[in-house]
Design goal:
Blueprint (H helix, E strand, L loop, with lengths): L21 H21 L7 H12 L3 E2 H8 L3 H13 L3 E5 L7 E5 L1 H21 L5 H30 L1
Antiparallel strand pairs: 1-3, 2-3
InterPro entries: HTH_MarR-typ, MarR/SlyA-like, WH-like_DNA-bd_sf, WH_DNA-bd_sf
Pfam family, one: MarR_2
Keywords: Plasmid
Length: 168
């Protein structure tokens, strides 16, 4: 059987999911969340990605945080953070200034508009997620979140172990 790129997928619009493989499902759910997120917030006058939303919330919680510390906190690579910061700075939501203590370090703070954007993100997230997870009952949603937390903790442990092995 040959691949025909013009033929419709048997499950049109659905990702091909391998039995027993969580990663593909997680990536699919992340993609759906991201698409919904961007439409949701654009309709509310805020053009930010999910990563940028996390950046806004983290800077609000830690005003003056360095770019490196923020990248670590969000568990993203510094170049990814820089790509996310650019539009936020351009939209005048974030200010990036050199540290008075160490001129090599950039500190990040939210502007007044950035504080408003972070508040909108935080206030909108429950409704946004409820819309996306509407197929789950309240009990299923709680179980789902608990299982996600458990899977994340396990994945973080595995990653830390791999990083330690690589250092040796």
């Amino acid at each position: 059987m040959s691949f025909d790129p013009k033929a419709p997928d048997q499950e049109a619009g659905k990702a091909v999911l391998l039995p027993g493989v969580a990663g593909i499902r997680i990536r699919r759910l992340q993609s759906l969340f991201g698409s919904h997120w961007q439409g949701w917030f654009r309709a509310r006058g805020l053009a930010v990605t999910p990563v940028q939303g996390g950046v806004l919330l983290s800077i609000r919680r830690h005003p003056g945080i360095s770019q490196i510390a923020l990248a670590r906190r969000l568990r993203i690579e510094p170049p990814t953070l820089i790509q996310s910061l650019g539009p936020l700075i351009k939209q005048k939501l974030v200010e990036r200034t050199r540290s008075l203590d160490d001129g090599r370090v950039y500190e990040l703070r939210l502007t007044r508009a950035g504080l408003e954007a972070a508040a909108l993100v935080e206030a909108s997230m429950p409704e946004h997620e409820a819309d996306l997870l509407r197929s789950l009952s309240p009990e299923e949603r709680q179980t789902f979140l608990s299982l996600l937390d458990k899977a994340i903790a396990g994945a973080e442990m595995a990653l830390e172990e791999r990083e330690k092995e690589a250092e040796c």
